[in-house]
Amino acid sequence: VSVCLVPALAEEGSQELLRQLRVDWPSASGGSALPDTISALKRALGQSPWAAACEQGPGTAALPEDVVCKVHLKSFVEQQGLVGYDPNLGVLLVTERKLRSLAELQQAVLQCRVSDAAVLPASGFPGTGSCCGILHVVSCEEEFQQQQLDLLWRILDPGAHTALQKHLICGPVKVTNPSSPIGADQYFQLRKRQMHEASVMKYGELAQDEAWTEVIDTLTVAAIRFEMLSTAHRSQITLDLEDSSISTKGTKSGAFVMYNCARLATLFDTYQRAVERGTYPPLPPASELNFSCLREEGEWLLLFNYLLPFPEVLQQAAQLPPPSKGIRITANTEMVCKFLIQLSMDFSSYYNRVHVLGEPFPHLFDQMFARLRLLGAVRDMFHSALATLHLPPLSQI
């Protein structure tokens, strides 16, 4: 893993919400190591040429009690030749709180280990390959403050890893006609309740069984991730919190994608059970199949519109700019979301028209085998695309 995501300042309770969303977000352990890290940062401040004591002269405004010193960020940026930082960055008053935030980031980075140093240059992060790259994911309102932490970190820890910092800036999240302010945890619980109610409406009492808890949790996470990641991260997201905005089969939702992924799993599970009963023969190798049996327009659409261009979609979605282009990067998650939604719509249309598992007559097996191989590739593509969004495929709904 070559990239470590680090937040600005974690809110209380956010770790539990991240766990519910199944986001593996690095955080400081908060143990005895944190005070030692803060002490080390203070010693580094005392030795830094960019730091100076805060002199309280007559007629000057009183400084906050927890101010440690001041650091000349602008001079550091100019001397180091760094590009992409806000030109208004000047003198930073270093407080105990900022040092604690920095210590938490440093502790989080120490938890990350690079499994293959060779992947670092290819990832778009410069450096020696001896440590992970750091990606600050931050809201547009907090970008200035996070750049301050970035530069303070570079000054106090001029090691390799602090040179690999990049920033991913996220636009604001708005809610249509909110009756009252809503927080992230309330939003998650609302979507979970809506997904449960939609599942009960479609599947009846089965959706209230304990075995469905994991399925509904996964569908909720998928719905939220698609709702958030289908919009370019720099743009504003507008959330519609009405019950009608969540559906198990709405063609614009993450649940719809998961539903079609589960349909493929059910298809191959049904085929495998039929093979075990002796109804169908096992699926031959692809080299022995006659793919000229695939004459449906939907089959060629799946091949040319999805299977062949899929590697390019992944490459464009994860492409990072060269290091010389500044500190901001772009992650085109919306490309993967839109690709998966359109794929689900076209696959669903094809699957509703065509009977893949037909009568067990030998003269029909060539076409069935070719279709199974094609849909096996589609299933693998679903799994790979969902993996980029850290979503597990569902085996049934």
Automatic annotation (TrEMBL):
<dbReference type="GO" id="GO:0006420">
    <property type="term" value="P:arginyl-tRNA aminoacylation"/>
</dbReference>
<dbReference type="InterPro" id="IPR008909">
    <property type="entry name" value="DALR_anticod-bd"/>
</dbReference>
<dbReference type="InterPro" id="IPR009080">
    <property type="entry name" value="tRNAsynth_Ia_anticodon-bd"/>
</dbReference>
<protein>
    <submittedName>
        <fullName>DALD3 protein</fullName>
    </submittedName>
</protein>
<feature type="domain" description="DALR anticodon binding">
    <location>
        <begin position="257"/>
        <end position="397"/>
    </location>
</feature>
<dbReference type="GO" id="GO:0004814">
    <property type="term" value="F:arginine-tRNA ligase activity"/>
</dbReference>
<dbReference type="GO" id="GO:0106217">
    <property type="term" value="P:tRNA C3-cytosine methylation"/>
</dbReference>
<dbReference type="Pfam" id="PF05746">
    <property type="entry name" value="DALR_1"/>
</dbReference>
<dbReference type="GO" id="GO:0005524">
    <property type="term" value="F:ATP binding"/>
</dbReference>
<dbReference type="InterPro" id="IPR037380">
    <property type="entry name" value="DALRD3"/>
</dbReference>
<dbReference type="GO" id="GO:0000049">
    <property type="term" value="F:tRNA binding"/>
</dbReference>
